[in-house]
Amino acid sequence: MNQHSPSVGRLAPVTARGQRSRLRLLRAAEYVFGQKGFEGASIAEICRRAGSALGSFYTYFPDKKAAYVELVDSLGSRLRSELATAVEGIDDRLDVERAGLRAFFDFAARHRQLYRIVRQAEFVDPPAFHRYYRKLAAAYSTGLAKAMDEGELRVLDPEIAAYSLMGMADFLGMRWVLWETGDLDHVVDGAMDFLTGGLSVPPAKPKLATAAKRTTKRITKASLHAHR
Amino acid sequence: MNQHSPSVGRLAPVTARGQRSRLRLLRAAEYVFGQKGFEGASIAEICRRAGSALGSFYTYFPDKKAAYVELVDSLGSRLRSELATAVEGIDDRLDVERAGLRAFFDFAARHRQLYRIVRQAEFVDPPAFHRYYRKLAAAYSTGLAKAMDEGELRVLDPEIAAYSLMGMADFLGMRWVLWETGDLDHVVDGAMDFLTGGLSVPPAKPKLATAAKRTTKRITKASLHAHR
Amino acid sequence: MNQHSPSVGRLAPVTARGQRSRLRLLRAAEYVFGQKGFEGASIAEICRRAGSALGSFYTYFPDKKAAYVELVDSLGSRLRSELATAVEGIDDRLDVERAGLRAFFDFAARHRQLYRIVRQAEFVDPPAFHRYYRKLAAAYSTGLAKAMDEGELRVLDPEIAAYSLMGMADFLGMRWVLWETGDLDHVVDGAMDFLTGGLSVPPAKPKLATAAKRTTKRITKASLHAHR
Amino acid sequence: MNQHSPSVGRLAPVTARGQRSRLRLLRAAEYVFGQKGFEGASIAEICRRAGSALGSFYTYFPDKKAAYVELVDSLGSRLRSELATAVEGIDDRLDVERAGLRAFFDFAARHRQLYRIVRQAEFVDPPAFHRYYRKLAAAYSTGLAKAMDEGELRVLDPEIAAYSLMGMADFLGMRWVLWETGDLDHVVDGAMDFLTGGLSVPPAKPKLATAAKRTTKRITKASLHAHR
DNA sequence: AATGAATGAGAGTTCATTCAT
DNA sequence: TATGAATGAACTCTCATTCAT
Predict the structure, then answer these.
(1) Which domains does chain C have, with CATH numbers?
(2) Given Cys at both, which of C146, C152, D58, D144 links D158, Cβ 3.0 to 4.6 Å?
(3) Chain E: nucleotides under 7 Å from a protein CB?
(4) pLDDT in tens, B128-153
């Protein structure tokens, strides 16, 4: 175990000074873990960055993994909370989707460590990894199910829809937020276009379709060109 | 042809015995890397599993990373080839999507190490990681663009659509292949339902819509129940 | 008087509250040192057990070793005092031996940490270790010499006899008090039998010897059986 | 676990070079453990002394403790074997005792690390500690029981006698081999005197007793003087 | 006197890689 | 080619002790 427990030393600091130290360490850990991954990060570097002595890390965390797990949980709840705030008060469910997607991209842009930390969690602590996605999915599923019940969305299996939408957001963010910052408006529009109407051609007016086709074809070729 | 031809990144064995040793090592590596991750895996364990001596690893691979990168590339090309085979000769583009999704799930079920190896590639060798997804996306985008051109699919930005569909497949596979083996037919149906028609309620015949709604609503509730 | 008077090796508390804290720490130290050994014990655990803060230890002891040494000395003097009390007023010297042996076993049973603390003292502070045994041996030798002088015991080198008797008591206690609680009366009887008459067969009356032999032979075999 | 196992790396070396390395490490470990105790010894120092690299220790031992336990077992069997050799062919049982005692003192003198290593084993690995004494005691008890059966020794509980004799030897060795090298002949004589005839005064010829008394009294006083 | 945060030297252990055979 | 011993840098974690409050 750790050297501490109830009376002597705790992991939750009691003094204000302790609070500050712990926070500094956690922030440094978020940065370093995001930069180097779990294995690549060293406690020494985290402490150096936090301006603490090596041993101080263990005043606040039982071990390296615990700090990592705390970060995963924290990123998850920060993300969920930002998403909730972003869609608050929006009535139209498709607008909710748009705002949510946008908010996710913003979050990812402000927390570029998100992907690396969450994805590597699978190797560090599978439960934390599952927790992250399951909590997101649960909230998402519930929202979708409600909207379907109320006739605002087409009726689908909400959990399948939730994982589909999460996967979309995840991959689009990886591609256009992480790898190559692009015109996010365009990405959001494109994604909304897809998730709103799906792939299949509506049994519709041929003239309109042709016009649209020409337009997007150009985009298509440019995109393909750009990436080998 | 590309930067990953046989002679680059690997030390090609000349004798048949060497061929066999190399393959045994690679198979062992795939297993161990999939089980323990890149950092967690040790060359010693790989050699033990392959029945080779510790030093022999370096007869065939310059270092640990090289073997890992080769695996990522190999998984990528095996997957692309299986997908291509699976959809070969299918005319209807939506049937192509269905068959592709199914083939991906099958592949993931047979290569449960896929997710762990590919995802961790980001930390081991970012180029290999990008290559994996970019090659998949390029092929996918091209196919979608063609189908859109030919009027088989609604016209969308094909790269956005490709990443969206890849994200869907990835997350659905993670959820229903990796985490919890479920009724894959149901998942494929649900995913096709979503990706075909999207979320928005069609401005359609009220009677049909109502009927469908009631039917699927029951499914919905069951699903929610089943997964917390 | 000697080099271990109250004010040396300890920081004497002045207030009553201080007295209590010091004692609590010492008791906790005795427990933890006995449980984990000198190196295995941590100041943190001692403080936790004592209900004190980590820093408080150093209010009363200059360092870890000082507390340990104080315990060794204290165990030594407590033991010597109990032994002295136990044999007080006993006239027959062999009865003194019996009572002393018994008292030692009782002490060891009540202070199971005794062996571990004293034996490890050799590594922590050799002088304290020697002091412990030399003081015991000195008192013992004196007593034996006196009894020999007075014709109550056979005349032997008293120091050799003292160390022999201490070794006997030590090992018998280790075996039948520490390791496996047995029938102590039987052990005391057996030990007295040995230390009274020694190993050699007296040039005695054949009939009695034969009878005794048969009787004890049975005990013998049972004992051997019982302990592998 | 260790990085090694069946095919890749073993703890038992297969090459002659490996044999030599292992032996060098074990000898160095015996020296350093004996000098500094288990906790005080560092693998680094052992390797330095053995002329090996730090990591090589772990080629042959899974951890520090394993090497220690191996030493305890090895000391135990070396001692038992020397004792067995020393008494081989001796008919008179009391002569066996004398030769055994002497052999033990010799062994202790040549392996001054014996006491420190064995005694600290209690904290490092209790089973090894028990094994050491129990094996000695078992052999000893058997020998004593046989001699008692055959009428060569007075009949006593052989296990009690064995532990008594082991304790005597242990303490006498500690006092006159380890602490202060003395006249071992005198110690052996004195010990034999005690263990042969015990403490009690035989109901014998007064004249002889008086003579003996005077002789030993002088020794007594000298001894007492010498040690405070 | 008491608290608990801070310190940092030092430990055991792992393991990718090299090398002699 | 194959083997397995050898290497040593690097890591996580512990804990006695000090110090500011």
Answers:
(1) 16-226 (1.10.357.10)
(2) D144
(3) 1-21
(4) 999 999 999 999 999 999 999 999 99
